[in-house]
Amino acid sequence: MKYYGAIEAGGTKFVCSILADPDHYFEEVRFPTTTPEETLERTVSFFKEQQNKYELTAIGVSCFGPIDLNPSSPTYGYITTTPKIKWRYTNIVGFLKQELNLPVGFDTDVNGAALAEYKWGNPENIRNLVYYTVGTGVGGGVVIDGKPVHGLVHPEAGHILIRQNLEKDPFKGDCPYHGNCLEGLCAGPTIQARFGIPPQDLPEDHPFWPILANYLAQACIAQIYQISPQKIVLGGGVMGQKQLYPMIRKEVIRLLNGYIQHPMILEHIDQYITPPILGNRAGACGAMALAQMLEKQ
Ligand SMILES: [Zn+2]
Description:
Blueprint: E1 3-9, E2 13-21, E3 24-32, H1 36-50, E4 56-63, E5 78-79, E6 90-91, H2 92-100, E7 104-108, H3 109-120, E8 128-134, E9 138-144, E10 147-148, H4 182-186, H5 188-195, H6 208-226, E11 232-235, H7 244-256, H8 263-266, H9 269-272, E12 273-274, H10 282-296
Helix pairs in contact: 1-2, 3-10, 6-7
This protein binds zinc ion.
């Protein structure tokens, strides 16, 4: 059995674990994301301790962003222009390699999750998919032909612009860069800001949910037109409100208005827009998938 270290490096918490495959999950530790020094020190000491027990093949980091993924860039493996000021230009990959002496796979948290769903949540053997997470932030990852998409940087699908329902939802949006972009309107903290309670406490039949479903449907449609994914996976804490799935599917069909004629949309939309098959393992499995990518290269 091969063991991999998985680091889910999130803006609010870090989760470090040891896995062999999605069904073999060994150790796990979670701690809040504080300063880079303290957080990375805790990460390294966890893995150093585990290395006495498990012979690790590689480490994968699925990271909050933006991050530098260009291997020929002098800042490859860094977190770059994040709104979390202390973390700007943190050399996360360099530090882990130096301290743990292991190969380190690195990508955005959502590209990691998209890759994990592609590898282990894909009984249909589709070739491309989009993964959106709607939680503390909103992010979108894209996998095409088994590879996470990188370009100039990486997809930033959480910051696309959508049409806001200003009449029913005059909230100004809280993205520090764009105000009312997708994340600025749909992330969990925006629900807290609007109603004073976290998303999990907003009643299932609250009139805001159809508005949010419309926003997320607009995001799905942008992806459908642009990437033409064979599947759209929606995960993250806000999607714990399960009534959103049928609302979003219905809204996608309404907004497409018959323009895309495909059985996956017209007949099987419940298999087309889905929760992650890996459920709450998507994060850790994403990081493991990034570690495993190194073996192919
Ligand atoms: Zn934004």
